[in-house]
Automatic annotation (TrEMBL):
It comes from Trifolium subterraneum (Subterranean clover). Pfam families: SCO1-SenC. GO terms for cellular component: mitochondrion. This is Uncharacterized protein. Transmembrane segments: none annotated. GO terms for biological process: mitochondrial respiratory chain complex IV assembly. It comes from the Eukaryota.
Protein backbone atom coordinates (compact mmCIF):
# COMPACT_ATOMS: atom_id res chain seq x y z
CA UNK A 1 0.00 0.00 0.00
CA UNK A 2 1.24 3.44 -0.81
CA UNK A 3 0.93 6.38 1.54
CA UNK A 4 -0.79 9.63 0.64
CA UNK A 5 2.69 11.21 0.42
CA UNK A 6 3.29 9.30 -2.84
CA UNK A 7 0.13 10.48 -4.61
CA UNK A 8 0.56 13.28 -7.17
CA UNK A 9 -1.54 15.22 -9.67
CA UNK A 10 0.13 15.44 -13.10
CA UNK A 11 0.86 18.53 -15.21
CA UNK A 12 2.08 17.43 -18.65
CA UNK A 13 3.58 19.62 -21.37
CA UNK A 14 5.01 18.70 -24.78
CA UNK A 15 7.64 21.16 -26.02
CA UNK A 16 11.28 21.62 -26.90
CA UNK A 17 14.16 23.52 -25.31
CA UNK A 18 14.98 25.75 -28.29
CA UNK A 19 11.41 27.02 -28.66
CA UNK A 20 11.66 30.76 -29.28
CA UNK A 21 8.49 32.00 -27.60
CA UNK A 22 5.45 29.85 -26.78
CA UNK A 23 7.39 27.04 -25.10
CA UNK A 24 9.09 29.13 -22.42
CA UNK A 25 5.80 30.90 -21.67
CA UNK A 26 4.01 27.58 -21.19
CA UNK A 27 6.76 26.12 -18.99
CA UNK A 28 6.71 29.30 -16.89
CA UNK A 29 2.93 28.87 -16.58
CA UNK A 30 3.52 25.29 -15.44
CA UNK A 31 6.06 26.46 -12.83
CA UNK A 32 3.55 29.01 -11.47
CA UNK A 33 0.79 26.38 -11.46
CA UNK A 34 2.97 24.10 -9.30
CA UNK A 35 3.30 26.83 -6.69
CA UNK A 36 -0.41 27.70 -6.74
CA UNK A 37 -1.65 24.12 -6.61
CA UNK A 38 0.70 23.13 -3.83
CA UNK A 39 0.53 26.24 -1.66
CA UNK A 40 -3.10 27.30 -2.09
CA UNK A 41 -4.84 24.06 -3.02
CA UNK A 42 -2.65 21.76 -0.89
CA UNK A 43 -2.15 19.34 -3.81
CA UNK A 44 1.02 17.40 -4.58
CA UNK A 45 2.02 17.91 -8.21
CA UNK A 46 4.19 15.91 -10.63
CA UNK A 47 5.17 18.30 -13.46
CA UNK A 48 6.40 16.58 -16.65
CA UNK A 49 7.97 18.12 -19.78
CA UNK A 50 8.11 15.78 -22.79
CA UNK A 51 10.46 16.90 -25.56
CA UNK A 52 9.11 16.81 -29.10
CA UNK A 53 12.63 17.34 -30.46
CA UNK A 54 14.61 14.39 -29.07
CA UNK A 55 17.30 14.69 -31.75
CA UNK A 56 18.41 18.01 -30.21
CA UNK A 57 17.11 17.78 -26.63
CA UNK A 58 19.45 15.43 -24.82
CA UNK A 59 18.69 14.40 -21.22
CA UNK A 60 21.39 16.79 -19.94
CA UNK A 61 19.99 19.67 -22.05
CA UNK A 62 16.49 19.02 -20.73
CA UNK A 63 17.73 18.96 -17.14
CA UNK A 64 19.70 22.19 -17.54
CA UNK A 65 16.83 23.95 -19.34
CA UNK A 66 14.23 23.01 -16.75
CA UNK A 67 16.37 23.44 -13.62
CA UNK A 68 18.17 26.64 -14.60
CA UNK A 69 15.27 28.53 -16.14
CA UNK A 70 12.11 27.25 -14.51
CA UNK A 71 11.69 24.76 -11.68
CA UNK A 72 14.01 21.93 -10.73
CA UNK A 73 11.01 19.73 -9.91
CA UNK A 74 9.83 19.55 -13.53
CA UNK A 75 10.74 16.10 -14.86
CA UNK A 76 12.11 16.11 -18.42
CA UNK A 77 11.33 13.11 -20.63
CA UNK A 78 12.89 12.11 -23.94
CA UNK A 79 13.06 8.95 -25.99
CA UNK A 80 12.86 7.58 -29.51
CA UNK A 81 10.90 9.77 -31.95
CA UNK A 82 8.37 6.97 -32.57
CA UNK A 83 7.61 6.62 -28.85
CA UNK A 84 7.24 10.37 -28.39
CA UNK A 85 5.01 10.62 -31.45
CA UNK A 86 2.80 7.80 -30.10
CA UNK A 87 2.54 9.45 -26.68
CA UNK A 88 1.73 12.79 -28.30
CA UNK A 89 -1.01 11.20 -30.39
CA UNK A 90 -2.55 9.63 -27.30
CA UNK A 91 -2.81 13.10 -25.74
CA UNK A 92 -3.87 14.68 -29.05
CA UNK A 93 -0.75 16.82 -29.25
CA UNK A 94 0.32 17.96 -32.71
CA UNK A 95 3.95 18.57 -33.68
CA UNK A 96 5.91 18.80 -36.91
CA UNK A 97 9.43 19.99 -37.81
CA UNK A 98 9.39 23.02 -40.08
CA UNK A 99 12.28 24.86 -41.75
CA UNK A 100 12.10 28.58 -41.12
CA UNK A 101 14.70 31.26 -41.91
CA UNK A 102 17.45 28.71 -42.44
CA UNK A 103 16.79 26.78 -39.23
CA UNK A 104 14.50 24.09 -37.96
CA UNK A 105 11.64 24.89 -35.61
CA UNK A 106 8.99 22.55 -34.34
CA UNK A 107 5.41 23.63 -34.91
CA UNK A 108 3.26 22.25 -32.09
CA UNK A 109 0.15 22.64 -30.00
CA UNK A 110 0.83 24.44 -26.74
CA UNK A 111 -1.61 23.19 -24.11
CA UNK A 112 -0.49 22.15 -20.65
CA UNK A 113 -2.43 19.03 -19.76
CA UNK A 114 -3.58 18.76 -16.15
CA UNK A 115 -4.66 15.39 -14.84
CA UNK A 116 -6.74 15.48 -11.73
CA UNK A 117 -6.50 11.78 -11.11
CA UNK A 118 -3.90 10.37 -8.77
CA UNK A 119 -0.63 8.78 -9.85
CA UNK A 120 1.87 7.03 -7.63
CA UNK A 121 5.28 8.67 -7.61
CA UNK A 122 8.32 7.80 -5.56
CA UNK A 123 6.68 4.88 -3.76
CA UNK A 124 8.38 1.68 -2.81
CA UNK A 125 5.71 -0.90 -3.55
CA UNK A 126 5.97 -4.44 -2.25
Amino acid sequence: MCSKECVRKVLLYFGYTSSPDIGPEQVQLMARAIDILESKQNLKVLPVFVTIDPQRDTPSQLRAYLEDQFNSRIVGLTGPVAAIRQMAQEYRVYFKKVEEDGGDIVSHSSAVHAFLYDVLYGCNSH
